[in-house]
Specification:
This protein is of the alpha/beta class. Helices cover about 20% and strands about 30% of the residues. A hairpin with a 2-residue loop joins β8 (about 110) and β9 (about 115). Bound molecules: adenosine monophosphate and magnesium ion.
Length: about 400
Amino acid sequence: MEEAQRLVLERAARLPAERVPIERAYGRVLAEPAEAICDLPPFPSSAMDGYALCAADTAAPPVTLPLAGRVAAGTPAGEPLPAGHAMGIATGAVVPDGADAVVPLELAVEEGGNVRIEEAIAPGANVRPRAGDVAAGATILAAGTVLGPAQVGSLAAAGVTEVQCARRPRVGILVTGSELRPPGSPLGPGEIYESNGLMLAALLASAGAVPAQLGTVADDPDEHRTAMERALLGFDMLITSGGVSVGPHDLVRSVQASLGVTEVFWGVAVKPGKPVAFGVRRDHLVFSLPGNPVSALVCFELFVRPAVNALLGASDPLPTFAWGRLAEPALRNGSRDEFLRARVVRTPTGASVSRAGGQESHMIVAAGQADALVHVPRGDGELPAGSEARYLPLG
Ligand code: AMP
Ligand code: MG
């Protein structure tokens, strides 16, 4: 698994960058560092509602200082604080020149144009210095950062209006299988509903890619060839579903080879998902996922999502596992790393993971009850109940 992931990431280079307005930057990945346009705060600002004054004037409390007006957020005083005075000030207002501290309302008593202060205050108290969060020109977010809510907030606060992000990868999805029918049509003998196309499109959208459904082809070499030839042209990545195993109707690999796709690997020691293949044609990445829906889901999370992350330029493209404890023992597979469909119960002391329904690779409805894939490393014997295991949260 790790070797396959490495082989994928070696070939998944960041796509060219485009300008993205910050209103649409949530979820995108920075291709270049973002720099503050202004100091933040842009001026010394009050952290409290209270009275701006010169701290030295409170050195021998109690003291009573005459009030020289009030300032609110957004309307600075316009002139310095006269010596020996205090000024009413609101949170976020400019601390006037001549003042170096703010006494909170709670520690002052206003009476007839004066304010009485009971305790000495330190210079700088309750004043947010100019550029205390960041200075203009400083890097606020590194290239490769995924822009979450706090990150887009920080861009806006620092005066940034647009950023450079790798464009979203365009990904074609081609489904194979003569037995597959679209949901809603009547099923003939031996037919089932096609479900991987929709699932893969949803997975791709969740990863930040732009999916395109290229339809379903029968297990026929000519149909495969025509569809794949078209599919390989317009996309950064092609994902096929089904037809990648060892049966006589599994045509994906041979057709890809005839179209000039260089196979990088076929077969990974994971369960489910063993027959997954990966290849390249020029700079197009080609993932051939097994048709069993749970295998396709697992292979997407282990190999395709990291590739999408890398095309987007994420600094940490590999899957992000969390840790929990097994609620039941798990038998290890001797030769393959297994990914069990599981439910996670979070408690104040950690997460507990338990199997969610049937574990066979066709059981997509059982997988729909799961919210995680638990990694059971290959090996002998079993992992006892209570042992630590890592899991991938799902969708
Ligand atoms: P394959 O990988 O083509 O050998 O398919 C393995 C199993 O997955 C078979 O039982 C197929 O009927 C089923 N299957 C393949 N493709 C799909 C699909 N797109 N949606 C639902 N089931 C599928
Ligand atoms: Mg098939």
